[in-house]
Amino acid sequence: MLCEQIFKDITEIHARLFDHRPAIQGHINYFLKEFEEKRGDREKVGLRNIEKAVVDIKDKFLPESKDAMDVFLTNLIAKLKVATEVCKKIEEKENNIEIPYLEDQREQRKKNWEDFMQRQFERSAEVDQEYDAQVIKLSKEYSDLEDKLISDYKTRP
Fold first, then answer.
1. What one-character DSSP code corresponds to residue 62?
2. CA 105 from chain center: how many Å?
3. Smaller CB count within 10 Å for the chain: N or C?
């Protein structure tokens, strides 16, 4: 029993002298609390600044921007309408100029096509005539050869 008592006392003395976990834990908790408070204060200040900037933008810059946009957009719309009208007039002038030119070009292409087709027809007729002449010539040559073969065959003893 005495040994147990001595062992308990020694363990308690050892824990008090060398076991600093409770003290360290207390310091850690204190540090975390301080850090969170400072961080929370900084975030609150940052959020207040952002809120102030948003209110300033909402109250001051948005109405000014809206008024400026109304003025500039009406001017821009008017200028766009004028530009659109000018473009339409230019397009009409180009169409009036281009229509006769395009019709002339179309007629020229039509005439060229007809000439081309006529030349092709003439060439085709020439080829057909030449072919017929060659057929007649070859037929005559082969009939002469056939007659010669027959006469040679008959004259043979």
1. H
2. 38
3. C
Q: Distance between CA 75 and CA 123 in Å, rounded?
A: 69
Query: What is the domain count for the chain?
Result: 1
pLDDT digits (tens, 9 = 90+) for 32-88: 788 777 776 777 788 788 888 888 888 888 888 888 888 888 889 999 999 999 999
End-to-end CA distance of the chain: 159
Please, what's the b/e burial string for 118-131 (b: 16 or more CB within 10 A of its CB; e: otherwise)?
Answer: eeeeeeeeeeeeee
At position 74, the amino acid (one-letter code) is T
Q: Is the torsion defined by CA of 73, 76, 78, 80 positive or negative?
A: negative
DSSP 9-21: HHHHHHHHHH--H
Range of 122's domain?
Answer: 2-155
Residue with tokens 């020229």: 108
CA 9 to mean position of chain CA atoms: 82
Token pair of 79, please?
């200028």
